[in-house]
Design goal:
The structure is a homodimer. The model of chain A has no long low-confidence stretch (mean pLDDT 86). Chain A is built from five helices and three strands; from the N terminus they run H-H-E-H-H-E-E-H. The first copy, chain A, starts with a helix and ends with a helix. By secondary structure, chain A is mostly helical. Helices cover 65% and strands 11% of the residues of chain A. The interface between A and B is large, with 36 and 37 residues.
Chain lengths: 127, 127
């Protein structure tokens, strides 16, 4: 199970459209899988300043979602192997817990109906 | 597909241990599914001020993760039916895109190997 700080960082990293846009772009790119994309390729089109882009990239790196490979003066970005896996696990676990709760409620309702039907049958039987 | 603001809010709502703690507590509680929990039940034990708790609850409500039912002076909280579904979908889609990318790379490597093996066989055959 992921620790709280890991989850905080992963979810915070996902909580901005530019950061989601960058990871989507890295995930979509199918060629040059090993090389990754330059920072320019991964971040052009986003109408924000370079310092803002740098901050978004830092948030993604600290969340373990992207990896930066420095090759001389070229910085290349790759998506991490299991981006946001812990975050996905947490939501999945929550939804399963919640589903089980509904299952228990449904079972209770079904049993109540059966009991009620049984009571009616018994009533008729003894009449 | 969820819009950007919906995703921003869902991920931001997940990005704090107290907010995750509150939704976990609401998801775990199996009894009184319809009634929900009082704010006190859902938030006791968290060592933060009442105003801080109120802010966390507001973030969760705005993200559509929890529902507040006001019954006179008692506020009851329930988890929404599909908490963080859009967020889970976004991560899932990203991971599938990423997986396809690896599949393409693996296929390329496999085909390259076959080609290389074929070339060797051909070489031997014509020798």
């Amino acid at each position: 199970m992921a620790n709280q700080v890991t989850l905080d960082r992963a979810f915070a990293a996902c909580a901005h459209p530019i950061r989601r846009g960058i990871v989507e772009r890295l995930a979509e790119r199918e060629k040059d899988a090993d090389e990754g994309m330059t920072v320019g390729e991964a971040t052009h089109d986003f109408a924000v300043s370079k310092p803002a882009i740098s901050r978004h990239l830092r948030v993604l790196e600290e969340a373990g979602a992207i990896v930066r490979v420095i090759d001389g003066r070229t910085h290349r970005l790759r998506l991490a192997e299991q981006p946001f896996d812990d975050a996905a696990d947490w939501i999945g676990q929550l939804q399963r817990m919640w589903q089980r709760k509904f299952d228990v409620v449904e079972q209770f309702i079904a049993e109540s109906r059966e009991d009620a039907a049984g009571a009616r049958t018994d009533g008729r039987g003894s009449a």
